[in-house]
Amino acid sequence: MYSYQFQWGVFMKKGQELIVDIVDVEYPGYGIGYFEDFKVKIKGAVTGQKVRAIIKKIRGNVIEADAVEIVKRAAYEREGICSSFGACGGCTYLNMDYAEQLKIKENMVKKLLDGAGITQYDFLGIQASPLEFSYRNKMEFTFGRDSAGSLTLGMHKRGRFFEVVNLDTCVLVDEDFIKILNCALEYAANNHLPYYDSRTHSGFLRHLVVRKAFKTGEILVNIVTTTQMNCDFDQFINAIKDIRLRGKIVGILHTYNDRLSDAVICERLEVLYGRDYIIEELLGLKFKISPFSFFQTNTYGAEALYNMARKFAGDLTDKIVFDLYCGTGTIGIIMAPKAKMVIGIELMEEAVKAAQENARFNRLSNCTFYTGDVAEVLTKINDKPDVVVVDPPRSGIGPKAINNIVKFGPDTIVYVSCNPQTLAADLRIFEDAGYKVKCVECMDMFPHTYHVETVARIQKEYN
User: Which NCBIfam families does this UniProt record tie to the protein (predicted)?
Assistant: First the structure.
């Protein structure tokens, strides 16, 4: 990284201001334009905009810049959807017509696959989220302060990590979330409870995490604090229970976290009221969701995504399915009623315990789940899979685990990806190992952001 660059007779430096016409969008959500002979990447900018930006980084002939002002808006942009948009960093594309968002995501994925040399496959486009608004079943709100120093509870301000924007409304969640947020903020302000300042590492209140099951209406509220002071939460419990909600509060939790990072981490958990889980339903099956277990944040979108994966897997009758990076076992459990056997592997012990419990919960006796690194556990399994489903973290699978999967020689591999960059790289490795990408389809699980899920069907090539 350089603070300045001289190229082709043009001198550029960090902090310099540019006016750029955005002509394309690349993953992860960079608007692309050109200035002289430099390629300019601006986070959140979209095709058709003219943007005033400040250079942040220069690497070779590529400039990364921060938007300062939208000088000219794209023709398809819209306004007035949310009063917090622009200040809140939660949404990137809320100002865009939803159909345009889908086009951008579809094109981002196709360009990454093209760049990896993945060709001659059926691209099936992108499915829209069943809900464009109020689709999230989980939100992590942060306690902080605004520019005036007042206590806030909401999302980090865009470009200002140490400021938190109060959310009077949020189009990503239903009204129950905002009612709970406002109740928690009022309680904290009335009791003069200090927020945790990540710069000084002092304070008490860190996060408020709300999870809601769409099918059952069950709600879990989790207040996250440091151990720097003691607090009687009886007033908070009563206030939360007294809110008139569409859903039902089934648990109120207190999580202790003294880690320095801003992530929600559980060092100790206390149940203040009720129980420490909610029950959700997907495709006719029930899943127990604990406060820190992974579950897709778009319930109806998850049903569409898993239907897509099940379709790509084909007929599972009398077949053995490996569910790799299985988390709480959701995909494997959904496939288990048709399969002969499901074997799941997951690194996190807590998630594996949840997967085992979810299998019992649905009276499925053909599921076995192992704890450990996927690449290592695969070397110790004797069963041969007919179908392998992989749903890895954003970092992807990688050559070592792919090599171990290929050694089993499964006829079909279904790759469910939350990061099309690592998906493209991994698909290249699979094809080099004698497999062929047959079809790819995208699922929009996160409207108004640049994130997109992608499912690929990979088949073994027989000479």
Answer: rumA (TIGR00479)
CA proximity to 214, closest of 286, 155, 153:
286
- Residue 418 annotated to the active site: yes
Which of 170, 183, 326, 418 is catalytic? The answer is: 418
- Is 11's pLDDT higher than 80? no
Q: Are strands 367-371 and 341-346 parallel, antiparallel or unpaired?
A: parallel
Measured in whole angstroms, the distance separating CA 83 from the mean position of its chain's CA atoms is 23
Residue-range domains of the chain with CATH: 4-72 (2.40.50.140), 103-131+298-460 (3.40.50.150), 138-282 (2.40.50.1070)
Helix (H) or strand (E) run with residue 58 in it: strand 50-59
Give residue 389's identity as a one-letter amino acid code: V
**Over residues 432-460, mean pLDDT:** 97
Asked if residue 372 lies in contact with residue 349, where contact means CB atoms within 8 angstroms, the answer is: no
How far, in Å, CA of 147 to CA of 158, rounded?
13
Query: Is the pTM above the cut of 0.85?
Result: yes
Q: Which residues contact 433 (CB under 8 A, 6 or more apart)?
A: 402, 403, 406
Q: Which two tokens stand for residue 418?
A: 């939350």
